[in-house]
Amino acid sequence: MEFSHLPVLFEQTMDALDVKPDGIYLDGTAGGGGHSSGILERLENGRLICLDQDPDAIETLRERFGKDKRVTIIKTNFSEIPEVARELEIPAFDGILMDIGVSSHQLDCPERGFSYHYDAYLDMRMSQSGKTAADLVNELSFGELVRILQSYGEEKYAKNIARAIERERTISPITNTLQLAEIVKGAYPAAKRHDKHPARKTFQALRIAVNGELDRLSAGLDGAFSTLRTGGRLAVITFHSLEDRMVKKRMASWCTGCICPRDFPVCVCGRKPSAELVLRKPAVADERELADNPRSRSAKLRCCKRINETIY
Q1: Which residues face 121 on adjacent strands?
Q2: Which of 40, 77, 179, 302 has a CA between 20 and 30 Å from the CA of residue 221?
Q3: Whole-number Å distance between alpha carbons of 126 and 190
């Protein structure tokens, strides 16, 4: 099993994590092990916990790191980080990385059904279990389809697409990626069909819905931060605005201190910030990385450091 996934923003991520040779680190989306290998290169007698929900990724990680006694590999989602820490009796982590979104392997394997560039069964399950994208497009109501397309895809033509899906599935079930892509394309105004691929936002929205990505990201951020030791760092790489906004707001809330009205002469809330930003602005790919890996174009890295034990 070859789980191909180019680690984006690699050097920036390693710098942000500031890996200590004897530290305990967790890669919440280890994938093919690209970022994990960078952490291991900087560890001596430290420890690395690799998580991923994709069975293909777990197989690859075991092939790469299975003989390294510093590494523990667990098949689970990063929203379960506190449970992993308790199970392994790890009191706190020195650093946690979460690389959010779909991997190159998942996009490039036609049979996984993530891409509108290949004809395959409409799957999109990162964990390879549970309901598929085909289940959603054939079972959800018009209203639910519109909500998903608008909320998770920020799709301007959500109602047009939902109507087209409703119409087509009464004729025959929608089961394949190219079948759905053509339905979406037909629902777009003719003048807009030659911009970015019309199905791009629909596929993103369905993938997020199938995998519960935003709910898991929210839980994962809180869980990850709660398991950091004082001075520990949380680095998060996102690939679209919905994820990035959530990460930005959550980190801002951890970095916020007093919330008393400005006209109060003294603070009465007693609130202190529990984190500080390591990166004032998100790190993005430079021209060299963009040339080597075009998929890094939308990647943003944010990082914060825990500075006390209080979480609000």
Answers
A1: 176
A2: 40
A3: 33
Mean local confidence (pLDDT), 141-160 = 97
Q: What are φ and ψ of residue 228, in 5° steps?
A: -80, 140
pLDDT reported for residue 114: 92
The structural domains of the chain, with segments of one domain joined by +, span 10-105+213-306, 119-211
The domain defined by 119-211 folds into DNA polymerase; domain 1 (1.10.150)
Confidence of residue 312 (pLDDT cuts 50, 70, 90): very low
Counting Cβ atoms within 10 Å, is residue 264 exposed (0-12), middle (13-18) or buried (19+)? Answer: exposed
Q: What percent of the chain has pLDDT over 70?
A: 97
Contact 122, 134 (CB under 8 A): yes
Burial 16-47 (b: 16+ CB within 10 A, else e): bbbbbeebbbbbbbbbbbbbbbbbbeebeebb
Which amino acid does the sequence have at 110? Answer: P
The overall average pLDDT reported for the chain is 93
φ/ψ of residue 221, rounded to 5: -60, -50
Which CATH code of 3.30.70.890, 3.40.50.150, 1.20.1050.10, 3.90.1170.20 fits the domain covering 10-105+213-306?
3.40.50.150
